[in-house]
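Q: A reviewer asked whether we had any structural model of the full assembly, not just the individual parts. We don't, so I'm hoping you can provide one. Inputs are below.
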Amino acid sequence: MAAGRGRRAGGGDTRAEILEFARELFAAKGYDGTSVRAVAREAGVDPALVHHYFAGKAALFAEVIGVPRDIEDKIAAAVAGPADGAGERIVRTFLRVWDSPEGRTRFRAMVGAVATHEEAARMLQDFVGRTVLAHLGEVAGGARELALASVGAQLVGMGMLRYVVELPAMVEAEPEEIVALIAPNVQRLLVG
Amino acid sequence: MAAGRGRRAGGGDTRAEILEFARELFAAKGYDGTSVRAVAREAGVDPALVHHYFAGKAALFAEVIGVPRDIEDKIAAAVAGPADGAGERIVRTFLRVWDSPEGRTRFRAMVGAVATHEEAARMLQDFVGRTVLAHLGEVAGGARELALASVGAQLVGMGMLRYVVELPAMVEAEPEEIVALIAPNVQRLLVG
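A: Here is a predicted structure for the entire assembly that you could use as a starting point for your response.
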């Protein structure tokens, strides 16, 4: 097989290669400047193959910056349903996504990347703005963007203390204790 | 002057040297296992000289991990006064400490350090637990440690989005807009 770029069938490491080309493109052109089609072209594969491995641009991007792949579906599921319990569902979802040895490691890696690489910070900024805040906005009705960002701040900070700084009170707490404490704040920010 | 350790007068870079020895000791022995006396001994200076440059162990430690030196005084000042406005004073203080080009850089460096170095995470964990939460506990009366930790989470997360991820809504907000949004949550966590 020829080295370098060229159209080819999906081999064992094709998924990883697509991801690598996506990483380069997102870093060079940002979220808006990158398309599934462009990633496929760079990787020398058919766009359908990219879609076979990744649900779409957001999923590809989330994986590049270390966010779990199905995060967007989970956020969408959390904000669906009555506005009343939205705060609880959102905090619980955040904990389910990251509360595992692998989740902790990924969270720490993501934080390390955004703190030390401008590009990773810009990627996460795009992702949070376009995916997370957009979904929160669905349940929040008229909430201002700063209020939605403050919900993100509450969750990210909890993750910082639970997974990165490992503050004992936050590490030892049961998920539902955290939900009970933090969800009312999230709810207040979302629906006022 | 002899190289290496040995009692000496305070020269121009003595402060930096003390800090370097303190960094090594804190990393090797943790917060509890380190004393101003031990740092002085390692640095080959009189303990009084360490106290001349640094208010005490907490201040020395805070500087080692990149927290501004007078942070403890500022936290103490914020929690002093009536419980009523404590949430506002605490959020405002956090923003005043970090809301400058230098503050941003330090915050980002601190986050990068704790995400990539176990030792730095342990140091910050000690510092937050012993200094920040202890002061918050003064105003909070009977609040559980998890509630105090959740206050920390709210502030750290806001710092993450404002200084590290640089989410536009959080970066562009005036400090007082953030205070108005977040302080009620902090207040609720502190005094119920």
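A: Points you may want to mention in the reply: Chain B touches chain A through 46 residues (CB under 8 Å). Residues 118-140 of chain B form the longest helix (23 residues).
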